[in-house]
Amino acid sequence: MSGFTQSGPKQEAKTSEKGGIRSPSQGSIDKVESAKEPEYDEDFAKKTMLFIDFRVLPILALIYSFAFIDRVNLGSAYAAGMDVTLDLREGARFSLATLLFFVPYIFLQIPGNLMLRKVGVRNWLTFLIFSWGTVLLGMGFVKNWLELLGTRILLGVFEAPFLPALLWLISSWYKRHEVQKRMAVFYLLSVTAGGMSPLLAYGLSLLNGKGNLEGWRWILVVEGLITIFLAFVCFAFVPAFPEEAKFLSERRKQFVIKRIDDDRGDALPDEITKEKVLLHLQDWTLWAYGLLFMCAAMPNFAQSYFVPIILRGMGYDTKEALLRTVPPYIASIPTTILVAWLADKHKHRATYIIITCLVCIVGNGITAWHPNDHIRYFGVFLTNIGNAASIPTVLAYGANNVVSHSKRSVQTAVIVSFGSFGGILAATCFRSQDIPRYVPGLIATMVSQAVLIAVVLALTIRHLYWNKRAREGKLTEPLEGQPGFFYTL
């Protein structure tokens, strides 16, 4: 048990039955409190939160969708002819190009989040987006595989601080047991758009020969230009933290700050110092949440990088392989929304994580071993359905169980850093010599889901223990240093 101690809400909190926290004025978990807040009527509360949803989530999802596309479009470029031009079939060159992106991506998460408050949300995110868009544009003109490696490393440098900044930003706007629905919407909007990238890639590959550029080069050049344009969109429209938001009236801003304080007591930021960062890093649960996200991220990266190649091995040509990667992403939308709605309604995460992991395991097994290629393709659907639902659940599980801006900044950075290891595992376990079925890689993905289940069970037992001691009054200090706080299971 660890955490930075800060002042709690002014009113003593009442606890829910499943590890949540209820303020004295809280009704249902999805309704904004109004009993103790006569100045905030229900209509005002609903309109404010709906306005925030539409103002915060779509722009962040749009920008992250192209961050996701820019990170994983290597598979589409490979299928469109990059493998021949840059001789990527030689040895482990393609896996190495995939892997090296994650080296800087791992180590720059925490420094990036420390810069977010210092430089400002708009300035920092705009700089990152413009920089990696420029790198991607340059990637379209590389002459050999070594130059490709250099651009992939630079892409990792500039994308590294981006996702943890977005996760920190989103979690700062919402209460703990309404955040998964928003995480799911953000993830689905961005990843579904990313899932459509093979359609975009296929269309751009048809420009093959135009301007003396090969089709795969057009994929990278056009997507790089789109990303550079989005940097200017970000500068104009990206939201800040609640207390800094200029798009809210003062009344709405105070309303948002109050409801967050009533829920977990950390609406306003505490100062982030080196000492606090080191203190938070001593909490082993942050590393456990990171391990969860690493295991959840591995199937996601495997699907993005290697499914087009697996589909080509099933006998589909380049066009069919790229187009058939899209339907599994679409199929995951309703199930991910359903899981998020149920998890927030029940204020519970662990069971849903386990169920979605089991679905992912079954899907990988079918893709690996079933003799019928049509059934193997169905396995890709199951893998996507399970994995797409588990990722926002894992993110919400971690976000629900930390208090204070300083600890949240460290936690999101650790989680995304570990997610990079999921990408490294995918790049190393899906080896060139295993083309086209990639059975060893699919087995490794199944093992990652089993590890995820084991870690979730360990964390759940741990949280149950400390919640029980807190309810029995056997603690010398409140959980996470916040009076009335209980861990979400």
UniProtKB/TrEMBL annotation:
<keyword id="KW-0812">Transmembrane</keyword>
<keyword id="KW-0813">Transport</keyword>
<dbReference type="Pfam" id="PF07690">
    <property type="entry name" value="MFS_1"/>
</dbReference>
<protein>
    <submittedName>
        <fullName>MFS general substrate transporter</fullName>
    </submittedName>
</protein>
<feature type="transmembrane region" description="Helical">
    <location>
        <begin position="326"/>
        <end position="343"/>
    </location>
</feature>
<feature type="transmembrane region" description="Helical">
    <location>
        <begin position="410"/>
        <end position="430"/>
    </location>
</feature>
<feature type="region of interest" description="Disordered">
    <location>
        <begin position="1"/>
        <end position="35"/>
    </location>
</feature>
<dbReference type="InterPro" id="IPR036259">
    <property type="entry name" value="MFS_trans_sf"/>
</dbReference>
<feature type="transmembrane region" description="Helical">
    <location>
        <begin position="185"/>
        <end position="204"/>
    </location>
</feature>
<dbReference type="InterPro" id="IPR011701">
    <property type="entry name" value="MFS"/>
</dbReference>
<feature type="transmembrane region" description="Helical">
    <location>
        <begin position="350"/>
        <end position="369"/>
    </location>
</feature>
<keyword id="KW-0472">Membrane</keyword>
<dbReference type="GO" id="GO:0016020">
    <property type="term" value="C:membrane"/>
</dbReference>
<feature type="transmembrane region" description="Helical">
    <location>
        <begin position="124"/>
        <end position="141"/>
    </location>
</feature>
<feature type="transmembrane region" description="Helical">
    <location>
        <begin position="375"/>
        <end position="398"/>
    </location>
</feature>
<dbReference type="GO" id="GO:0022857">
    <property type="term" value="F:transmembrane transporter activity"/>
</dbReference>
<feature type="transmembrane region" description="Helical">
    <location>
        <begin position="56"/>
        <end position="74"/>
    </location>
</feature>
<feature type="compositionally biased region" description="Basic and acidic residues">
    <location>
        <begin position="11"/>
        <end position="20"/>
    </location>
</feature>
<dbReference type="InterPro" id="IPR020846">
    <property type="entry name" value="MFS_dom"/>
</dbReference>
<feature type="transmembrane region" description="Helical">
    <location>
        <begin position="442"/>
        <end position="461"/>
    </location>
</feature>
<feature type="transmembrane region" description="Helical">
    <location>
        <begin position="216"/>
        <end position="241"/>
    </location>
</feature>
<keyword id="KW-1133">Transmembrane helix</keyword>
<feature type="domain" description="Major facilitator superfamily (MFS) profile">
    <location>
        <begin position="56"/>
        <end position="462"/>
    </location>
</feature>
<feature type="transmembrane region" description="Helical">
    <location>
        <begin position="286"/>
        <end position="306"/>
    </location>
</feature>
<feature type="transmembrane region" description="Helical">
    <location>
        <begin position="94"/>
        <end position="112"/>
    </location>
</feature>
<feature type="transmembrane region" description="Helical">
    <location>
        <begin position="153"/>
        <end position="173"/>
    </location>
</feature>
